[in-house]
């Protein structure tokens, strides 16, 4: 298979992710809100007038809440997602777009994001031209809402298949860094040169450890009869409803440590200052009020499972119930971190 511009970009992006950890840590001396405003303005300044029409929306535009992590393609397999896509950007513009994504994620989160993008190449090879969807690692889109500044409200989004990173800011502060949705197909690469790659191990390892640690009485409370529903995209609220499962107050101290590790794995997709703020909200709302519920279908191939972690301020949603594009059952992850008070809300 020849190395196309699409593949070259995915490989370069992944390499860059591996090399930028030190720079991202150093950047934390600057608050994330200011870093994002600078990165967004630099990105907008690189665009042509026609590109800017695609990328820039009013802060009150309905598009700000029209977020999706699914492919968003029509019957002809053409994209319907809004924003300016990486494919139509030159090298300078694309670098500025990637810099914006870097500013909104931790080093780990950025590496995961670029890895998710590169998986489109694997899907393209597995599915071929007869696949139901176009697979293109350059079909990731950037949108800016309002005017990036340190004085008023604005927001931005970077999204495509299996990824939607959203952020709302006001007066230089990040007031909402959700929803953050990462998916992975395959969850575990089982063949080819990237065999063994697991883009999102923190979503599975701690959860399975916690499930396996539950005794019979705890499992009876935590285990649900049906899989949790799919993540609700395109809406400003998760629709999670009342929490289900076992409250952290009924866990042992060692189990609470595992649960905290799971929560931190999601929060730590964000820059250090934002992750710290999210985890502080969890603590202030009462860590014993966090619920963990799960469902696993042990009789089915691959043992598909889902779980939900929900506290007074947040909800984590996870599903691994679909086969991957090679047909391996339960090897296709969707995972999300959301605010229960509502995503995109300026006043929290």
Automatic annotation (TrEMBL):
Chain spans, region Disordered: 224-247
Pfam families, per the entry: DUF3500 (PF12006)
Residues of the signal peptide: 1-25
Keywords: Signal
InterPro entries reported for this sequence: DUF3500
Protein name: DUF3500 domain-containing protein
């Amino acid at each position: 298979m020849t190395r196309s511009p699409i593949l070259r970009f995915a490989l370069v992006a992944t390499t860059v992710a591996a090399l930028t950890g030190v720079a991202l840590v150093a950047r934390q001396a600057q608050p994330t809100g200011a870093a994002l405003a600078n990165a967004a303005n630099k990105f907008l300044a690189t665009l042509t007038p026609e590109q800017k029409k695609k990328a820039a929306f009013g802060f009150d535009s309905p598009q700000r809440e029209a977020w999706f992590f699914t492919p968003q393609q029509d019957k002809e397999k053409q994209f319907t997602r809004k924003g300016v896509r990486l494919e139509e950007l030159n090298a300078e513009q694309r670098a500025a777009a990637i810099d914006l994504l870097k500013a909104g994620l931790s080093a780990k989160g950025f590496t995961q994001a670029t890895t998710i993008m590169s998986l489109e190449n694997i899907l393209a090879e597995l599915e071929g031209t007869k696949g139901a969807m176009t697979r293109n690692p350059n079909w990731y889109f950037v949108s800016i809402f309002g005017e990036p500044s340190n004085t008023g409200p604005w927001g931005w989004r970077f999204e495509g298949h299996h990824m939607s990173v959203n952020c709302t800011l006001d007066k230089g502060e990040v007031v909402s860094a959700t929803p953050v949705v990462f998916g992975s197909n395959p969850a575990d690469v089982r063949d080819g040169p990237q065999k063994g790659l697991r883009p999102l191990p923190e979503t599975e390892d701690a959860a399975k450890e916690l499930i396996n640690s539950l005794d019979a009485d705890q499992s009876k409370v935590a285990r649900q009869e049906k899989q949790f529903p799919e993540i609700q995209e395109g809406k400003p609220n998760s629709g999670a409803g009342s929490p289900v499962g076992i409250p952290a107050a009924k866990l042992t101290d060692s189990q609470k440590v595992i649960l905290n590790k799971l929560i931190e794995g999601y929060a730590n997709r964000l820059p250090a200052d934002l992750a710290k703020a999210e985890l502080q909200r969890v603590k202030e709302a009462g860590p014993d009020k966090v619920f963990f519920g799960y469902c696993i279908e042990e009789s089915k191939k691959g043992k598909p499972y889902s779980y939900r972690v929900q506290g007074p301020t947040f909800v984590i949603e996870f599903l691994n119930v679909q086969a991957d594009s090679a047909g391996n059952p339960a090897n296709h992850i969707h995972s999300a971190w959301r605010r229960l008070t509502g995503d995109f809300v300026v006043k929290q």
